[in-house]
Automatic annotation (TrEMBL):
Residues annotated as domain VTT: 77-194
Official protein name in the record: TVP38/TMEM64 family membrane protein
GO CC term, one of those recorded: plasma membrane
Protein location: Cell membrane
Matching Pfam families: VTT_dom
UniProt organism field: Cohaesibacter celericrescens
Keyword Nucleotide-binding annotated: no
Major site of localization recorded for this protein: membrane
Tree of life domain: Bacteria
Length: 235
């Protein structure tokens, strides 16, 4: 709070958060998100559009898939159908790799935009004791936090990318654990799409499998948070 008040009292601090360039970037982001959600609702970003190119234009289909996946991640759209579609179109392993490339690219754009908009406010020192200790833990093991979040499907990828952009995490520290640790779950979901031959997330078989994965993921996340806060409280 003291840092925010100090920032608001000097021009440089004020421009850091609401300067004209950031205002334009924010408006463009809002327009982009609205456009993406509109197209998602109308079917313009459906995996079925990729299916039309897959036979006659295989390379273009991969590039289009990567672009659509990146757009979905930046706009925080549901991306499960795309991950399933990757397995349906290209098989579990290759489809999982394509999905990981798309989500990593889109994630980095979100990370970059958040940093350009707000800087790194979560990289500043917090006065609160608990917040300060969590921050210290993150600075020591930042990649482990990213890795755990990426391999854990209960944690939403879209909002997390923007949140990480506000931390002191470097571009490399964001990119490599994002790709490496999103690869296993992306391949797993792609194999579901390949095995069941579907990219419809609402199908009963798919829903049952995903529900089971999320329940296990939630339990693991809870235990990890308990362990983290127990470790911090002992300092």
């Amino acid at each position: 709070m003291a840092y925010l008040i100090k920032s608001l009292k000097n021009k440089k601090g004020l421009r850091r958060y609401i300067g004209p360039k950031r205002a334009v970037l924010f408006i463009l982001l809002v327009i982009f998100v609205v456009w993406a959600w509109y197209n998602y609702r109308s079917g313009g970003l459906s995996p079925s559009i990729i299916e039309q190119y897959r036979t006659q234009h295989p390379i273009a289909a991969v590039l289009l898939f990567t672009l659509v996946y990146a757009v979905s991640v930046v706009a925080a759209l549901p991306s499960l159908p795309l991950n399933l579609a990757a397995g349906f179109f290209w098989g579990g392993f290759v489809g999982g790799i394509y999905s990981t490339i798309g989500v990593t690219f889109g994630g980095w754009i979100s990370f970059f935009v958040a940093r350009r908009l707000m800087g790194q406010p979560m990289g500043e020192r917090f006065q609160n004791r608990w917040a300060g200790r969590v921050q210290e833990e993150f600075e020591r093991n930042g990649w482990k936090f990213v890795a755990f979040a990426r391999v854990n499907p209960i944690i939403p990828t879209g909002p997390l990318n923007y949140l990480l952009g506000l931390t002191s995490l470097s571009n490399l520290g964001f990119l490599w654990p994002t790709f490496v640790f999103l690869l296993p779950p992306s391949i797993a979901v792609a194999y579901i799409g390949d095995t069941l031959q579907t990219f419809t997330a609402n199908q009963d078989d798919v829903s049952e499998i995903i529900r089971g994965i999320l329940i296990v993921s939630a339990a693991v996340t809870f235990l990890a948070l308990v362990r983290l806060f127990t470790k911090i409280s002992k300092r």
